[in-house]
What we know:
Largest sheet: none
Keywords: Membrane, Transmembrane, Transmembrane helix
Transmembrane segments: 20-38
Mean pLDDT: 88
Strand content: under 5%
Distance between the termini: 86 Å
Oligomer: single chain
Protein name: Pilus assembly protein
Structural class: mainly alpha
Amino acid sequence: MINFIKNFRKDENGAVTVDWVVLTAAVVGLAVAAYTTIETNSQTLIDNAAARVALENDF
Length: 59
């Protein structure tokens, strides 16, 4: 049992997998945050442009 624990502590394959999973999750999280920010700002810009066009058509 002691040898199993020592071998388990020396084995780094699982640690590398965990690192890649965490890194991938961070990249996906940043992509979602960027998408949300761009979508919100784009919608605001479109709404402002539509209001300006509607205002110009009133004259």
